[in-house]
Amino acid sequence: MSAMLELHGVSRRFEKKLDGVERLARRLGADLRETCVNAVDAASFTVARGEVVGLVGESGCGKSTLGRMVAGLLPVSEGEIRFEGVDVTDAHSAQARDKRLRIQMIFQDPMSSLNPRLKVAEIVGEAAVYHGLTTRREVAGYVDALLEKVGLDRAFAQRYPHQMSGGQRQRIGIARALAVQPEFLICDESIAALDVSIQAQVINLFQDLRRDLDLTYLFISHDLGVVEHIADRVVVMYLGRIVEIAPTDALFEGPRHPYTQALLDQVPRLGAGRQAFRTVKGEIPSPLNPPPGCHFHPRCPMAGPRCRREVPRTITEGAHSTACHLHDGGVE
Amino acid sequence: MSVLDVRDLQTHFFTDAGVVKAVDGVSFTLGEGEVLGLVGESGSGKSVTGFSILRLVDPPGRVVGGQILFRGQDLAQLSDREMRGLRGNRIAMIFQDPMMTLNPVLRIETQMVEAVRAHERVSAAAARDRAVKALAKVGIPSPEERLEAYPHQFSGGMRQRVAIAIALLNGPDLIVADEPTTALDVTIQSQILAEVQELARETGTALIWITHDLAVVAGLADRISVMYAGRIVESGPTDAVLTAPGHPYTEGLLGSIPGHGRRGERLTQIPGMAPDMTRLPEGCAFAPRCPRTSDTCRITAPGITEIGPGRGLRCHHPSLAEEGTA
C-alpha cells in the first residue's frame, strides 16, 4: 500500500496579536506579550489507501485542529499535507482544489453542521450539483440513492434537520459528505454525541461504507474503545505533539509511551469487575504555557531530568514509533 | 433500614402533544454505602427519576404517583420548607454540568460557606474550615487558595470536583449523581470515579449514579438498574446483570459497546430507535425493536418477575428462562 495522505511536520499556531491599547501599554512599560498557542506541533504521519487511522487524545490536544487542516478548513502554519502526492495546502492550484474535494469531513454535532433552513434534499444535493456530479434535473434521484446508502428512507429528503433524531441527523451528515464521492473521510468525534445503541448503528455503517465504497478514514475520537474497534493504526496526541503511532493491536497490547499507558489504564471496561480506578495525576496543562522538554513530564511517573530539558525525538521500530526518552537512551 | 426506598414512582409531563410518562412505575431500594447504577439512553427517564427524588421536576412535569421513602419518611408529603432542609443537607445532587450547581459571579468560598450555614448554626470560620476539608477530599490542590477563586477560573474537571465537594459538605446520606463525568476526559473521569468510590466506602453515603455508559458503572456500582421508556426493565447485582443479562435490551446495549477481542466485527446493533414517548406502543415498549417479540409482547406489558436474589426482569421472553429449559 502506498501512502494516500502524508503529513510532513505540520504545525498550526494560533496567535493573539496585541491591539492598539495593549501596544501602547507595552510602550509605557507594561509586561504584555503576544500570546501564541502551538495547537499542533510538527505532526508527521501517513495514511495508506483503504486504511482506518484513529487519532486519539484528550480535549485540547490538537486532534480536531489537525483534522481540520487535513480537510482544508484551516490553513497550516508550517509543513506540508500531501494527498496522492499533491500538496493540498496550496490554496491556488486547481489540482489541489480537485484533490481537496476527495477529502470530506463529518462533524461531531450534526445539528450545528446542517443548515436548519434547508431540507435534507438540498443539504445533500447542493454540493453535488455545484461540482457537476449530477444535474438539477437528476439530483432528486441522486439524493435518494445516497439516503438509501446511509440507511434512511427516501421520505427523509423532504424533512428539515430539526424533524429528525440525533442518529438520523448524523446519517444526513454522512450522506452529505458522500455526495461529492470522496475517497477519504475525516470523522471528528462523529459518534460522541449519540446514544450507545445508535453509536453501534453508525459504527456499523462506517464499516459497511468502507467496504462498499473503498473509503479511507481518519477517525478522530476520545473514545479508545471505539478506536480500538474501528482503526487499523492509532496516532496518540498530547498537547499538540504526536507521542505514539502504532498498529492497533500493538498499541493496545503493548503501549510504549507512558501517556498512552496511562490513557489505556483508565478506560472503564466491562467485565473488569469492580475495579479500583487508577489515576494519572494532574490535568492537561495549559497550551498557552506548555511545560518545557517533554510536555508530559509533570504528569509522568517515569520522568527524569532529561525530560524537563529536551524535547524527545520520535524513534521508529518497525511500524511502532514513540516520542519518549525512555526508548531513546534513558531519562537521566 | 434502607436509606432510600422508591416505590412505584410515576412522573408524568403534561405537554401539548400529550402526556409523557417519563417515569412510569419505578421501584428500587438503596442501603447505606450502596452504589446503584441507573443506566439508560436519552429519554429513558433516568434523569427524571433522579430529579423526582429531589423534587426538582418543573412543570409541565409532576410526580403523579408512588412513594419516595427517605429513611422511612415520604418525601412527597413534605412541605417545600422541610424539603429545602433536606436538599443539599441529607440529600445532595451532582449535575452533568457543574455550572448548574455553581453561581458564576460568586467566589467558591461564598457558595460553600452559604451551603453549610443554610443548614447548621456554625461560625463562618468553622464553615470555611469544612469547605477547605471538602475541597481537599476531592483532590483539589491548595484548597485554601482555591476558595478565593471564581468558577470560571477552574477547568471543567476541577469545576466538577468543586460541585462534588459542595455535595459532600454536610455529609449527606444520599447523593444523586446525574452523568457527572460524561463531559470529562477519561483521565479526569477516572480520577473522579476513584474519589467517589473511596468516599462511598469511607462515609457510608449511598449513591445513585445515573449514566448512559455501562462501562463506567461496571467498575463502580454494586447494583445496576437498566431503564427503557420510563421503566426499569432489568435490575440486579452488577456482575450478574453484565455477565448474564436477561432482557434483550440489556443484551443489545452490551453488544453495542465496542471492546476487547471483537475488533472489526460487526457490533450487534439494536434496530430502530427510542420510541416516541407520547405514543408508546401498547404492550412492551421495547417490542418494536426486540428480536424475540411475540404476539403476547404486543398486547400485554410484562410485569416484573423476580429471577433471583435481588434480580428483577420485565420481559416475556427472558434469555435466562431459555437457558433453563435448554
List key phrases describing it.
heterodimer, A: 332 residues, eight-stranded mixed beta sheet, four-stranded antiparallel beta sheet, 12 helices, B: alpha/beta, Rossmann fold, 2 domains
> How many distinct domains of chain B?
2
**Rg of Cα set of chain A:** 22 Å
Count the strands of chain B?
Answer: 12
Number of helices of chain A: 12
Strand content of chain B: 15-25%
**Strand/helix succession of chain B:** EEEHEEHEHHHHEHEHEEHHHEEH
What portion of the residues of chain A fall into strands of 2 or more residues?
Answer: 15-25%
By DSSP, the count of extended strands of chain A is 12
Strand numbers in spatial order across the main sheet of chain A: 6-7-8-3-9-10-12-11
Principal-axes geometry of chain A comes out as globular
Principal-axes geometry of chain B comes out as globular
State the name of the first-level CATH class of chain A. Answer: Alpha Beta
How would you describe the overall organization of this protein?
- The complex is a heterodimer of chains A (332) and B (326).
- Helix content of chain A is 32%, strand content 23%.
- Chain A is of the alpha/beta class.
- Chain A has one domain (3-102, 182-269, 277-327): Rossmann fold (3-Layer(aba) Sandwich).
- Chain A is globular.
- Chain A starts with a strand and ends in a 10-residue tail after the last strand.
- The mean pLDDT of chain A is 88.
- Chain B has 326 residues and is α/β, with parallel strands linked by helices.
- Chain B folds into 2 domains: 4-90 and 174-274, Rossmann fold (3-Layer(aba) Sandwich), CATH 3.40.50; 96-169, no CATH class.
- In chain B, 33% of the residues lie in helices and 24% in strands.
- Chain B starts with a strand and ends with a helix.
- Residues 321-326 of chain B have low confidence and may be disordered.
- At the A-B interface, helix 7, helix 8, helix 9 and helix 11 of A face helix 7, helix 8, helix 9 and helix 10 of B.
